[in-house]
Amino acid sequence: MGQKTRRIVLKRYIEGVPSPDDFEIVDHELPDLADGRFLVRNILLSVDPGTRARLSGQASYVPPLKLGEMVGAFSVGEVIESRHPDYVPGDIVSLAEGWAEHLVSKGRGFIRRITDRRLPLSPWLGVLGVSGMTAWFGLRRVGGLKSGQTVVVTSAAGAVGSAAGQIARLEGCRVIGVAGGLEKCRWLVDEAGFDHAIDYRSMDVAAAVAEAAPDGVDILFDNVGNEMIDAVIPSMNLNGVIVVSGQVAAYNQVDPPGLQNTRAFITHRLKMQGLVVFDDLPWDDAERAMAEHVLAGEIVWRDEIGEGLESIPEAFAGLFRGENRGRRLARLAPDPFEPEAKR
Ligand SMILES: NC(=O)c1ccc[n+]([C@@H]2O[C@H](COP(=O)([O-])OP(=O)(O)OC[C@H]3O[C@@H](n4cnc5c(N)ncnc54)[C@H](OP(=O)(O)O)[C@@H]3O)[C@@H](O)[C@H]2O)c1
User: Which domains does the chain have, with CATH numbers?
Assistant: First the structure.
């Protein structure tokens, strides 16, 4: 008999803002472990806004989810049984399979083995995982980050945004973050070392960016969508680069707004380019560099950890109300990399 487990499936296609009732926790029996596969008991599951893109029944760069299918997600877990030559019980891996207590992997696709025990596992789903790598490759490969530039980051207090701002600061850039609410803005300046933070809920972003960046903006790292990009374009410098990382404001809109300020692409020779961070695999050098910055206290991160699968539907819906402070996670088992006293 295969491993009995529980997982979260899509109960109905989502229109507009997600609600916890869009999901259902169901019992599931995994198939017997075939040759070339390994069984993972998940320890932490990630709750990311990007998941929303597959939940409306519409195609994105990955196929849409069907009703009753497990919702895709990143996780870290422990291999507990293996018939795969490269993985043995006890290995800690990060996977992109889904919101489930146990998973079977075929050993293909996104799998990162985590061996650095100097940090707990949670940052490997945030600042050292997909979020941090999106910031790293988005700024460096796509943005062409250089010392002395002025960089604006939107959804700056999120896992991707806060990593992006800190990478730019360490490179010697002036960093301006755009985020919702005073608490997030204070955290960005006081803890994450941003030079300036703009609360888009109470301020006009275009005017605030123009004031905070009198010499113009060289890179916009956008996680939000076209309205935010339009607000920053008038401040962009000649040859400025807009890095399209995410579109969190657009994920719930049927008809998201188009860009208005496109003339500046000609007058200011602007460039706009998106990324899918998996194109930059393997991430080994970037992961190592980020881990050293984190261990040295040069890059900080925040996460919010709920208990069990049950915490996920509400945690996910809350992302679109701006409730999260950094990466949201669900804990399913104690973290073997945490010091004993904290377990
Ligand atoms: N390109 C890639 O390969 C790649 C990989 C991973 C992630 N991403 C993208 O990176 C972005 C950031 O991801 P993350 O995991 O760090 O999540 P995140 O930034 O924490 O996303 C949630 C936050 O988005 C903001 N938000 C939600 N609805 C909004 C709206 N309507 N308008 C403006 N802001 C809104 C809220 O912050 P405020 O309170 O500040 O508004 C909320 O706390 C996402 O768009 C994600 O899809 C891209």
Answer: 4-126+301-342 (3.90.180.10), 131-278 (3.40.50.720)
